[in-house]
TrEMBL record:
Protein name in UniProt: Vacuolar-processing enzyme isoform B
Record-level Gene Ontology MF annotations: cysteine-type endopeptidase activity
GO cellular component: vacuole
Keyword Acetylation: no
Residues of the active site: H208, C250
Family per similarity comment: Belongs to the peptidase C13 family.
Biological processes, Gene Ontology terms: proteolysis involved in protein catabolic process; vacuolar protein processing
Amino acid sequence: MKLPKERFSSQFSPHTPLQPLISMNLSLFKSTCLFLFPSLLSKMPTFFLPTLLLLLIAFATSVSGRRDLVGDFLRLPSETDNDDNFKGTRWAVLLAGSNGYWNYRHQADVCHAYQILRKGGLKEENIIVFMYDDIAFNGENPRPGVIINKPDGGDVYKGVPKDYTGEDVTVDNFFAALLGNKSALTGGSGKVVDSGPDDHIFVYYTDHGGPGVLGMPAGPYLYADDLIEVLKKKHASGTYKNLVFYLEACESGSIFEGLLPEDINIYATTASNAEESSWGTYCPGEYPSPPPEYTTCLGDLYSVAWMEDSDRHNLRTETLHQQYKLVKERTISGDSYYGSHVMQYGDVGLSRDVLFHYLGTDPANDNFTFVDENSLWSPSKPVNQRDADLIHFWDKFRKAPEGSLRKNTAQKQVLEAMSHRMHVDNSVKLIGKLLFGIEKGPEVLNAVRPAGSALVDDWHCLKTMVSFLF
């Protein structure tokens, strides 16, 4: 699959009349050139100036191919933002929406993100972490108390705060923390995003998902319409300047497509479009594989892509858009079947901001010169998110001693997972046949709305159906 070409508006589009542009800017251009090149301009006839201006425009256009172009904005890789120019506070909300050792990668992703933010200079009091916390000391974990996010990676679990764990990782607590509403919290540390009008907020959510829905380890699922209403409410409160949302989940594009407004200072990227799976990585059988004692995927492809990029670059100079392009290239996995289409939504103009505004930056990377190439290694064969649990159960079964309780348990887990999938598939097909007829049912169930449209109009109906199936 090929990605569609991106379109960006430009101050000098092919349809811009050049003569009015020249006349409008001629006096300013001449004054500037007289200041910069007095000896040259003093000997040059006035009628040569438009020609010189056109040459400079052509030169600027050719140079812009090596710059980051978003809207009417050009940013050179060497341009920086320092602490003196940054106002407000950086806040972050990190959420892993799953539990179970077979979902190891989601909590590993969140722990890694926390370490990036801390190295970037964010204070612990400004980072709110949601994770079930059943992985580090799980009986399946070959390194008790340690979580890694790549095969040769170090421990990312150490120092991560336990703000909301176990049954406190809920939709209601997530929304309350994001809105800064302490009175609506149930359990947990009580930490919320107590932000002001000059503050920048980064939200990272990693989990399983489906069309219009995201998973949660406790309580009901999170639905796209509810999330969008909370984001609108946050904007209406005037308690942030800009907000960036990174989302890892299958069909994650459906959470924002046709729903996220472009005028509330929120920029979002997703691991996949509205119709496809996202992918796990560093899985058993993949190259490079996790250490042999592991039976589960260590990370997610989109998440690992943005975090490994952040680990090595100077985030004072790298923009959100530059990272988006690099992550998109790595996540599509060479246009092969094994990958997904990273998408962007909301106020895309915010992507010209440097990552430093949201993630801070590791001082160890200050001398790194950004190169607009994806030098990060891509796994040869990532794993569909929905198959990652089967990979774990099968690898566990394969490695267990013959006739052991562990082998029998793993076999049972594989069969139960497959049985549940068949039950859901058959139930949906039956509903389609009952509602639309035997012949029409499959056609209606497989129908896709036009690109850019919200998943559904009646969210209550969708929620009722999902609750019936799960």
